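Query structure, 373 tokens:
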């Protein structure tokens, strides 16, 4: 029996059943593609987390701050990893600091400046880098100001940020402690290998924002663009994978190809919907249950929703992406070769708006090829 442990953010999170949710993460569905006698999936991912905050909150290493009441979703992760297990690592959306730095306190991680060859630095978090959670780092107001945040907005952001600090132990890694995005990812990879388990990097999904039929970079979308091209944080994941000889499942490339194949209007049927205030609709863990696909189809047809979420998938979109990930595990070294089922143990119903495209979408798994970034 092999266990796949999932760590990541809201795109990976398991929200519950199709009957109670419109919102979905690929961790909701991954297990249904495997023979349960050979592979089980444990999902520790949590919405809003980054490589840094997942570590700071004790969700990876056990610092004895979480009990079963505080942490009902199988964590912390590290004590549960056994030799021969797999750990799938997908972080990126919340790490991104290419937009206004409103989330310095808890989420963002620096990418760092690339060298002349476009290679981003790999600086791992070390104990000596930790700072007190009682005092705001002196650099934060300046960093906020330089990122374009108005002066009169900074005090409220600082107040909100300091209210988050009790989530952390007395010492934690601040945004500017010196560690970088690749460094945090390397921390997880090395720790998993130390246990005799196998890390797999999963590139984070594309956001759904298009021009002329193509997914575009923008502030907050995997690093936007730099002198070496678009989506620098996706390139950073590939760099680290090459440097450490870690397998990659390219969910960014696949999601991007699916969105562009469908075009924007059809691609929205893979995404979750929001209310008039921009709050996601249909998440039982958020106290707003919604039944798939009945409630979703009804809202789409009647127009009773505020908009489309460009980041989070609905139940079918996350099911589609889980299928792609599962199919890519078949080629992983040490993974049970006969664990992948010909027919999954559950089928998430396609929304009405994609019924004519469903068969072609699953066929894209065979035709897909990585993009040049």
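Result returned for the query:
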């Amino acid at each position: 029996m092999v266990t796949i442990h999932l760590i990541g953010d809201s795109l990976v999170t398991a929200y519950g059943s199709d009957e109670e949710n419109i919102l979905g993460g690929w961790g909701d569905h991954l297990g249904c593609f495997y023979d349960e006698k050979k592979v089980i999936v444990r999902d520790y991912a949590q919405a809003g987390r980054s490589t840094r905050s997942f570590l700071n909150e004790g969700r990876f290493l056990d610092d004895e701050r979480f009990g079963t009441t505080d942490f009902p979703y199988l964590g912390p992760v590290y004590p549960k990893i056994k030799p021969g297990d797999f750990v799938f690592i997908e972080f990126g959306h919340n790490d991104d600091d290419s937009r206004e730095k409103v989330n310095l306190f808890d989420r963002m991680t620096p990418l760092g400046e690339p060298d002349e060859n476009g290679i981003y630095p790999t600086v791992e978090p070390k104990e000596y880098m930790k700072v007190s959670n009682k005092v705001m780092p002196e650099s934060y107001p300046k960093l906020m100001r330089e990122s374009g945040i108005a002066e009169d907005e900074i005090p409220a952001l600082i107040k909100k940020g300091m209210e988050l600090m009790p989530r952390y132990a007395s010492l934690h890694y601040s945004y500017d402690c010196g560690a970088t995005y690749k460094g945090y990812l390397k921390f997880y990879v090395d720790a998993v290998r130390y246990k005799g388990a196998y890390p797999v990097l999963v590139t984070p999904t594309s956001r759904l924002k298009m021009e002329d039929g193509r997914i575009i970079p923008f502030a907050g979308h995997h690093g936007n663009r730099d002198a070496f091209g678009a989506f620098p944080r996706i390139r950073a994941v590939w760099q680290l994978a090459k440097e450490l000889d870690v397998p990659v499942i390219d969910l960014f490339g696949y999601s991007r190809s699916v969105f562009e194949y469908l075009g924007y209007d059809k691609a929205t049927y893979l995404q979750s919907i929001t209310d008039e205030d921009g709050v996601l609709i249909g998440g039982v863990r958020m106290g707003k249950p919604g039944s798939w696909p009945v409630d979703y189809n009804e809202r789409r047809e009647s127009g009773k929703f505020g908009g489309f979420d460009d980041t989070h998938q609905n139940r079918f979109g996350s099911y589609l992406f889980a299928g792609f990930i599962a199919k890519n595990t078949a080629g992983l070294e040490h993974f049970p070769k006969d664990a992948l089922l010909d027919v999954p143990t559950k089928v998430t119903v396609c929304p009405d708006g994609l019924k004519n495209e469903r068969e072609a979408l699953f066929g894209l798994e065979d035709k897909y090829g990585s993009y040049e970034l």
